[in-house]
From TrEMBL, chain A:
Alphabetical UniProt keywords: Membrane, Transmembrane, Transmembrane helix
Protein's recorded name: TMEM9 domain family, member B
Coiled-coil parts of chain: none
Organism name: Electrophorus electricus (Electric eel)
Transmembrane portions of the chain: 170-189
Family affiliation: Belongs to the TMEM9 family.
Pfam families reported for this sequence: Tmemb_9 (PF05434)
Keyword Ligase: no
Any GO BP annotation: positive regulation of canonical NF-kappaB signal transduction
Annotated GO CC locations: lysosomal membrane
Domain of life: Eukaryota
UniProtKB/TrEMBL annotation, chain B:
PANTHER family: CHLORIDE CHANNEL PROTEIN (PTHR45711), H(+)_CL(-) EXCHANGE TRANSPORTER 3 (PTHR45711:SF8)
Membrane protein topology class: Multi-pass membrane protein
Keywords carried by this UniProt record: Antiport, ATP-binding, CBS domain, Cell membrane, Chloride, Endosome, Glycoprotein, Ion transport, Lysosome, Membrane, Nucleotide-binding, Repeat, Transmembrane, Transmembrane helix, Transport
PROSITE patterns in UniProt: CBS
SMART domains, sorted: CBS
Pfam families named in the record: CBS, Voltage_CLC
Organism field: Electrophorus electricus
Function: Strongly outwardly rectifying, electrogenic H(+)/Cl(-)exchanger which mediates the exchange of chloride ions against protons. The CLC channel family contains both chloride channels and proton-coupled anion transporters that exchange chloride or another anion for protons. The presence of conserved gating glutamate residues is typical for family members that function as antiporters.
Protein's UniProt keywords contain Glycoprotein: yes
Name used for this protein in its record: Chloride channel protein
Family (UniProt): Belongs to the chloride channel (TC 2.A.49) family. ClC-3/CLCN3 subfamily.
Keyword Iron: no
Gene Ontology molecular functions: ATP binding; chloride:proton antiporter activity; voltage-gated chloride channel activity
Length: 263, 821
């Protein structure tokens, strides 16, 4: 079972040729979340340099801040792996202990109206071999010779469930949903506010202009730079996040604005 | 995004033609500056030869001379170090199946030849051989698990609209009352643990106040689920909306949509699918499950170099994944395999069939072991019938088929018209508002009617289930009276108000579903079409079934019923009618036949109902086809203008290749590259001045004889790579595609060899090839482009787009409006 989380989402090693490099970069975001962020912000506080330099740094830090303060996207992915693995484990263990858990089995007998007795539903925790009308229907509403006739009309069904799986599934689902919602709120509300406060309005416009990169050789740059290894963690984080952003923006444009796909 | 315009405009001017036809063969061949080994006689054959691959192959050797023979058996020159990124594709481009398959065979040969060298290489070859089965196993596991999560979460969230389980928050209504002994025969889902919102907030379960409270809470939850779903889709993964099957069909036919099967799409689609289903919108989770399974297949294929680096091989995995998706959606493994074969797959060799079979098996197994519904079945609406059907019932079954076909045709027309409106007018600018409006209308109208209030899957289950003495639903109330009437003298049966009111409610539900489904399919949330279509068919079928049953009951002395129906005995099974109606409606919308019958048959587990199902599905397909040949998925593909060359359509026009090829007579000449007399600056100028995606390489401008084909993306990558890695590449460097460098003056800069990116065996046809044949070649081989020659000279190019444009033109449609540009 331990193999599952490791291989569920492949790392950047295999990311080059495939069609889903969009999603891949978010995989790269979370790995270097440790010390570089902290040291960068320390540096920033320690030596205030001239404006452009500070601005460049700030930009970088902001991107980092974004990934550390609201780690829900990366964390949801990491959490995704862990949770999926956990879910598998729990499911397996639940399956094994299921037999012992008497809450999770039932034998339900539905008995239709008979003579002047109303229809009834009987429900008991009994094993499969005892799941018949004689064991489950208690108290028997009819007397002696009518029991057989009554029981012939009843239908008894043995059912199993695993309440553990249901519980874990719902909890995992809700936590992933919650993290995504938090990250969404951050991305749509908090981040623009933060950016505006730090840089004013011009930065926003500029960064949006960067998106359209239409030169014929830009693509080649992109492909080749992807294949090289990037030494600087900070750059990597920034780069990866920006690429993800750009891709989602591109998707949004083609789906919602231009209506070229999925309409 | 760039359009996929592979065509190169330009036309061989008459002067060129006259020059080349006048010049001798020696002159033609000598353009390369290398000594040619061809004899003139052979060359004549070559020049007059047809478009068979053999001649291309020989032609491509021409540039390299005799020394190039051994290396040119490879598609790409493998002697050199491969450039990273070459052979990949841009977003929204079409793959070249032939090239990809050749690449795979080449790779396979390499591994096989190394196998004997060491134990490590042998292990690697074993891993490679097994990777196909491994990846489908993983895909099956993941899609089964995700389907389980979606089923459980959607059930729970759906019941959250009504109330909550106080003893254990995570249980849905049914699970909440699982062990309760307080349930009664008439009200089976009432138990003290389950509290409706009115009970929780107002403290009373009955009365107008609590009804309004429940109504309000129902609408509130429906709206908030829909809002969350559309927001998540919009912020994180816009590609997660819709059903996904049209796009997957297009992707499997060889189109590339980056990010469509990525991780974010998977996560968001899984999460929002639950929200969308729970919001009560008229949509289902079956279609999106296919998309989810395909995302799993794509993600797992990254673990195996065999699949991650080859787009054609990856599509084999995706075919298997879509089978796994349907397998878990309907609990029908065989139906899933057939669905993949009949509906979504483009290239489906036997090996893929077996892998699909295996993936479907694994997925169904995982879902069964999760047991999401607690009924030991894979779907909620699994039913079992044992009653026989009679021959005269074929008439109502066929009538249901007619209804299904009519509904399908109407739905496709109406939905496409609405989607076109959304696509082309300002109205499409407000996706969030649209979703919320539709969700609000759905919730407000749906709540008063018990048949629309409940989950659509549950509605289908109730409609499929046959009435018996054990059933207590409103639909079966007449049954108990009729059963009771057995004891009394016949003829005293009274009108049964329960059934009549149920009929009214069902009719209203039918109208409501029909209208809402048209507006729902295409919203920017994950939305499938199977369940609403089936619900509409099931409602109609149940109504017809009850009508026939009543007819047989009141007129049991008719000659039709006399033979089969005895007084008081049940001879009509309304549940079966519901099932036949569901199959017919689904068939009318999707135009599936075999896979649909198998899916429905796997739902019922009764072999004896195959004939009614086949009759209804076939009728609905005929009726539907009479109004328009394409199913909903093809219609959406066409609406979006995806480059999808349907293998089912026939091409019957008598046009020739030269009429379709680019450049046209009035266009500028074809943009070509010569094999060894371009400088880097000239090459870059050609690339930046045009937007074509590939360039034919010819011997020289004078001879116009074809050497090969180079893709724009590969050229740009190779140039960029050479700039970085090789010394002395400047703008004046000569670029050559031949085996040996051309003889250059001593002071010239170092030349750049681009032979490794040249496809030396491009497909060619002559200009007089009928388009029927060209279209067939494109369909069967999955080509991306094809060069047109005349007497061995390059004349023009035909791309997949050109063919689609031409087909649209022939069908009297506007060719430009439907293309993906």
């Amino acid at each position: 079972m331990r193999v599952v989380p490791v291989h569920l989402f492949p790392g950047e090693r295999t990311s080059r040729a495939g069609p889903s490099w969009s999603a891949d970069l978010c995989g790269r975001i979370f790995r270097p979340l440790g010390s570089p962020a902290v040291s960068a912000s320390f540096q920033l506080r320690a030596k205030p340099t001239e404006y452009t330099e500070a601005r460049r740094r700030l930009n970088a830090v902001l991107h980092l801040c974004e990934s550390c303060s609201s780690m829900s996207a990366p964390r949801s992915r990491r959490a995704g792996r862990v949770l999926v693995a956990l879910w598998f484990l729990v499911t397996l263990s639940v399956q094994q202990t299921e037999a012992k858990n008497s809450e999770d089995i039932r034998c339900k007998c539905i008995c239709p109206p008979y003579k002047d007795i109303e229809g009834q539903i009987y429900n008991q925790n009994v094993s499969l071999k005892d799941c018949n009308c004689l064991h489950v229907v208690e108290p028997m509403p009819v007397e002696g010779k009518d029991v057989e006739a009554y029981c012939l009309r009843c239908e008894c069904k043995y059912e199993e469930r695993s309440s553990g799986t249901i519980k874990v599934t719902i909890i995992i689902y809700l936590s992933v949903l919650g993290l995504l919602l938090l990250y969404m709120v951050y991305l749509t509300l908090l981040e623009p506010m933060l950016k505006r406060r730090l840089f004013g309005h011009s930065q926003l416009i500029q960064s949006e202009d960067d998106v359209g990169d239409q030169q014929p050789f830009a693509n080649a740059h992109d492909v080749l730079s992807r294949s090289r290894s990037r030494p600087n963690m900070l750059n990597k984080v920034e780069h990866a996040q920006q690429r993800w952003r750009r891709q989602v923006q591109e998707q949004r444009k083609s789906v919602f604005d231009r209506h070229v796909v999925l309409s | 995004m760039e359009s996929e315009q592979l065509f190169n405009r330009g036309y061989c001017r008459n002067s060129y033609n006259s020059i080349t036809s006048a010049s001798s063969d020696e002159e033609l061949l000598d353009g390369a500056g290398v000594i040619m080994d061809f004899h003139t006689t052979e060359d004549d054959n070559l020049l007059d030869g047809d478009a068979s691959p053999g001649s291309n192959y020989a032609m491509s050797n021409g540039g390299g001379g005799a020394g190039g023979v051994s290396s040119s058996t490879h598609l790409l020159d493998l002697l050199e170090e491969p450039i990273p990124g070459v052979g990949t594709y841009d977003d929204f481009h079409t793959i070249d199946w032939v090239r990809e398959k050749c690449k795979d065979r080449e790779r396979h040969r390499k591994i096989n030849s190394k196998k004997k060298e060491s134990a490590w290489e042998f292990t690697k070859s074993l891993y490679d051989a097994w990777s196909g089965w491994l990846v489908v196993t993983l895909t099956g596991l993941a899609s089964g698990a995700l389907a389980g999560v979606i089923d459980i979460a959607a059930d729970w969230m759906n019941d959250l609209k009504e109330g909550v389980c106080l003893s254990a928050m995570w249980f849905n209504h049914e699970q909440c009352c699982w062990g309760s002994n307080e349930t009664t025969f008439a009200e089976r889902d009432k138990c003290p643990q389950w509290k409706t919102w009115a009970e929780l907030i107002l403290g009373q379960a009955e009365g107008p106040g609590s009804y309004i409270m429940n109504y309000f809470m129902y609408t509130y939850w429906a709206l908030s689920f829909a809002f969350l779903a559309v927001c998540l889709v919009k912020v994180f993964a816009p590609y997660a909306c819709g059903s996904g099957i049209p796009e997957i069909k297009t992707i499997l036919s060889g189109f590339i949509i980056r990010g469509y099967l990525g991780k974010w799409t998977l996560v968001i689609k899984t999460i929002t699918l639950v929200l969308a289903v729970a919001s009560g919108l008229s949509l289902g989770k079956e279609g999106p499950l296919v998309h989810v399974a395909c995302c799993c297949g794509n993600i797992f294929s990254y673990l195996f170099p065999k699949y991650s680096k080859n787009e054609a091989k990856k599509r084999e995995v995706l075919s298997a994944a879509s089978a796994a998706g349907v397998s878990v959606a309907f609990g029908a493994p065989i139906g899933g395999v057939l669905f993949s074969l009949e509906e979504v797959s483009y290239y489906f060799p036997l090996k893929t069939l077996w892998r699909s079979f295996f993936a479907a098996l694994v997925a169904a197994f995982v879902l069964r072991s999760i047991n999401p519904f607690g009924n030991s079945r894979l779907v909620l609406f699994y039913v079992e019938y044992h009653t026989p059907w009679y021959l005269f019932e074929l008439v109502p079954f066929i009538l249901l088929g007619v209804f299904g076909g009519l509904w399908g045709a109407f739905f496709i027309r109406a939905n496409i018209a609405w989607c076109r409106r959304r696509k082309s007018t300002r109205f499409g600018k407000y996706p969030v508002l649209e979703v919320i409006t539709v969700a609000a209308i759905t919730a407000i109208v749906a709540f008063p009617n018990p048949y629309t209030r409940q989950n659509t899957s549950e509605l289908i289950k109730e409609l499929f289930t046959d009435c018996g003495p054990l059933e207590s639903s409103q639909l079966c109330q007449y049954r108990s009276q009729m059963n009771g009437s057995q004891a009394y003298p016949a003829g005293t049966d009274t009108a049964t108000p329960g059934v009549y009111s149920a009929m009214w409610q069902l009719s209203l539900a039918l109208i409501f579903k029909i209208i809402m489904t048209i507006f729902t399919f295409g919203l920017k949330v994950p939305s499938g079409l199977f369940i609403p279509s089936m619900a509409i068919g099931a409602i109609a079928g149940r109504i017809v079934g009850i009508a026939v049953e009543q007819l047989a009951y009141y007129h049991h002395d008719w000659f039709l019923f006399k033979e089969w129906c005895e007084v008081g005995a049940d001879c009509i099974t309304p549940g079966l009618y519901a099932m036949v109606g569901a199959a017919a409606c689904l068939g009318g919308v999707t135009r599936m036949t075999v896979s649909l019958v198998v899916i429905v048959f796997e739902l019922t587990g009764g072999l004896e109902y195959i004939v009614p199902l086949m009759a209804a599905v076939m009728t609905s397909k005929w009726v539907g086809d009479a109004f328009g040949r394409e199913g909903i998925y093809e219609a959406h593909i066409r609406l979006n203008g995806y480059p999808f060359l349907d293998a089912k359509e026939e091409f019957t026009h008598t046009t020739l290749a030269r009429e379709v090829m680019r450049p046209r007579r009035s266009d500028p000449p074809l943009a070509v590259l010569t094999q060894d007399d371009l400088t880097l600056a000239e090459l870059q100028a050609v690339i930046s001045q045009t937007s074509y995606n590939g360039f034919p390489v010819i011997v020289s401008k004078e001879s116009q004889r074809l050497v090969g084909f180079a893709l724009r993306r590969d050229i740009t990558i190779a140039i960029e790579n050479a700039r970085r890695k090789q010394e002395g590449i400047v703008l004046n460097s000569r670029v050559y595609f031949t085996q040996h460098a051309p003889t250059l003056p001593a002071d010239s800069p170092r030349p750049l060899k681009l032979r490794s990116i040249l496809d030396m065996s491009p497909f060619t046809v002559t200009d007089h090839t009928p388009m029927e044949i060209v279209v067939d070649i494109f369909r069967k081989l999955g080509l991306r482009q094809c060069l047109v020659t005349h007497n061995g000279r390059l004349l023009g190019i035909i791309t997949k787009k050109d063919i689609l444009r031409h087909m649209a033109q022939m069908a009297n449609q506007d060719p430009e409006s439907i293309m993906f540009n």
